[in-house]
Design a protein that fits this description.
GO terms for molecular function: penicillin binding; peptidoglycan glycosyltransferase activity; serine-type D-Ala-D-Ala carboxypeptidase activity. It comes from Acinetobacter seifertii. Its EC number is 2.4.99.28, 3.4.16.4. The protein is α+β, with helices and mostly antiparallel strands. Among the domains are: 183 residues, Penicillin binding protein transpeptidase fold (Orthogonal Bundle); 93 residues, Nucleic acid-binding proteins (OB fold (Dihydrolipoamide Acetyltransferase, E2P), Beta Barrel); 92 residues, Beta-lactamase, CATH 3.40.710. Helix 10 runs antiparallel to helix 11.
Length: 551
């Protein structure tokens, strides 16, 4: 009886197991039939756009500005060093070349986490599944999205080679600090190309996809180092590197060399002019669509224009005296270097020199020759007497700005001008802009006074009126009347208060006679003048209001 009871108990369990084994694949196949029609075509994957920065070039083909918060530098598979591929395989998917897109061990772990609601971020995704997710899917963690990822991974494997899949992966993967792809990461973290990286540096980058913030060498260097060394150990275990290569790589410090992204914008006022125009016409996607814009800017003249504006403003500002320190007893990290001026904190004041702490931790000494100019500012029209000792200029804990000489062997005290300026250089033969400067320094003030600083035009409007006079048949020797005139309640006057009577048109122009300009406006007509302004690119609301007063 006991034997029969045991058999009777085993038989239902066996049936349940059979039902489960049959139901699981059927259910899985049913989900595939449901999801398959929504899967994208592989042709779109091969053509999937990568993020490429907007680049601005001069007329002489020099790169002067680059934009795009997300940096992506596409590379072909054949350009990738084998050690870099091995680092990613060791870190993410060592059986990549053996499986068909799905790791059943990893899948089981991921499904278990999904069912139990675990917060563990293991995921279990193969490289192919990560390609599916990065190119097509949202980051949500649901069962349907995970199944879609699995089915799409299989479709990818059936349509693309392993090399194509790896190429898509290393070009799209997010690696922290706005870097998308390995070439961008090499540039951002080490300022190198992928072929210049050491094995340790490749392993450091390969460790980032798992958790770009947690293992980031900038914000978490200890965790990043631990992750890097684990990957190097896996590379040794899998036979990708030798014991000697492993020992050398593990001993290598992190040694980041992150370039200043601002250096990509050599002439930022000109570059920003182009960026804003492209966004205006094509939307924000223009920033990451790989546009290369060639301008009429002349690189040499642009550099001269920027230096001329900066030197002129500084010379004017110096003549008005030293206004004192930029701040006192404030954290040095709050201040930014620009216009070849560097924030520094005064640490010691001697009779004819002072010492200052720089942001990089070094200490420099400013000699008397570098500060003797600093006569104190009194008001807009006067300065104080010449200083005789350093303590009259600075005191300990002052935050000031310093500038090195070309050889960087001596430093001078400088101050950021209060006054601003702008410059536009236009080729008179074709009207092209060859240089544009919007202020003292872009990183001090991004407001472009050459484009955005609308002001009353004053006498600069007069050449337009004279051009229309010539169009109507006048010549430089046509006699015009420089005498008082009243229109309604408005009586324009000449700046010197004098009137010259009948004079040639050319003389009226170079003497800038206001009454002649008003009479010319009456002759050529307001509507023709407004049309000329619009022909030169002015909008209706940018035309001087004064022309509405003249009748």
């Amino acid at each position: 009886m006991k034997k029969l009871s045991s058999l009777g108990f085993v038989r239902p369990i066996f049936l349940i197991i059979i039902i489960i084994l049959v139901s699981l694949p059927m259910g899985f196949y049913g989900m595939y039939l449901y999801i398959a029609p929504t899967l994208p075509e592989m042709s779109s994957l091969k053509k999937a756009p990568l993020l490429k920065p907007l680049q601005v070039y001069t007329a002489d083909n020099q790169l002067i500005a680059e934009y795009g918060g997300k940096l992506s530098i596409p590379v072909e598979y054949k350009q990738i060093p084998p050690a870099f591929i091995h680092a990613f395989l060791a870190a993410e998917d060592s059986s990549f070349f053996e499986h068909s897109g799905i790791s059943f061990k990893g899948l089981g772990r991921a499904l278990s986490e999904s069912v139990t609601g675990s917060d563990v971020q293991t995921g279990g995704s193969t490289i192919t599944m990560q390609v599916a997710k990065n190119y097509y899917l949202s980051p949500e963690r649901t069962r349907k999205r995970k199944l879609t990822e699995i089915f799409l991974a299989r479709k990818i494997e059936q349509n693309l080679s392993k090399e194509d899949i790896l190429s898509l992966y290393v070009n799209k993967i997010f690696l922290g600090k706005n870097a998308y792809g390995i070439a961008a990461a090499a540039k951002i973290y080490y300022n190198k190309s992928i072929n210049e990286l050491s094995i340790a540096q490749m392993a450091m980058i390969a460790g980032l996809p798992k958790a770009p913030s947690k293992y980031n060498p900038v914000v978490n260097p200890e965790r990043a180092l631990e992750r890097r060394n684990w990957i190097l150990g896996r590379m040794l275990q899998l036979g990708y590197i030798s014991q000697a290569e492993y020992q050398k790589a593990v001993a290598e410090p992190i040694n980041l060399n992150m370039p200043n992204r601002d250096l990509n914008n050599i002439h930022p006022y000109a570059g920003e002019m182009v960026r804003s125009e492209l966004v205006k016409h094509f939307g924000e996607q223009a920033i990451d669509s790989g546009y290369k814009v060639y301008t009429t800017i002349n690189a040499q003249r642009q550099a001269i224009a920027e230096k001329s504006v900066q030197d002129g403003l500084e010379a004017y500002d110096r003549r008005h005296g030293w206004r004192g320190a930029e701040a006192h007893d404030k954290p040095l990290s709050q201040f930014r270097a620009y216009a070849n001026t560097y924030p520094a904190e005064v640490t010691k004041v001697n009779s004819n020199s002072f010492d200052a702490l720089m942001q990089d931790g070094s200490t420099v000494t400013v000699q008397w020759s570098g500060m003797s100019w600093a006569r104190p500012y009194r008001n807009a029209n006067s300065v104080g007497g010449a200083p005789s000792r350093a303590s009259q200029i600075v005191k300990v804990k002052d935050i000031i700005r310093l500038r090195p000489n070309e050889a960087k062997t001596a430093w001078s005290l400088v101050q950021v001008p209060k006054v601003q300026g702008q410059l536009i250089a236009i080729n008179p033969n074709d009207g092209s802009i060859e240089a544009i400067v919007g202020g003292y320094n872009f990183y001090q003030s991004k407001f472009n006074r050459a484009l955005q600083g609308w002001r009353q035009p004053g006498s600069t409007i007069k050449p337009f009126l004279y051009a229309l006079a010539l169009e109507r048949g006048m010549t430089p020797y046509t006699m015009v009347n420089d005498s008082p005139i009243t229109i309604g309640k408005w009586t324009p006057k000449n700046s010197d208060g004098r009137y010259l009577g009948m004079i040639p048109l050319r003389r009226a122009l170079y003497l800038s006679r206001n009454t002649v300009s008003v009479r010319l406006l009456q002759t050529v007509g307001i509507e023709r003048t407004r049309q000329l302004f619009m022909d030169f690119g002015l909008q209706e609301d940018q035309i001087p209001v004064v022309f509405q007063k003249v009748c």
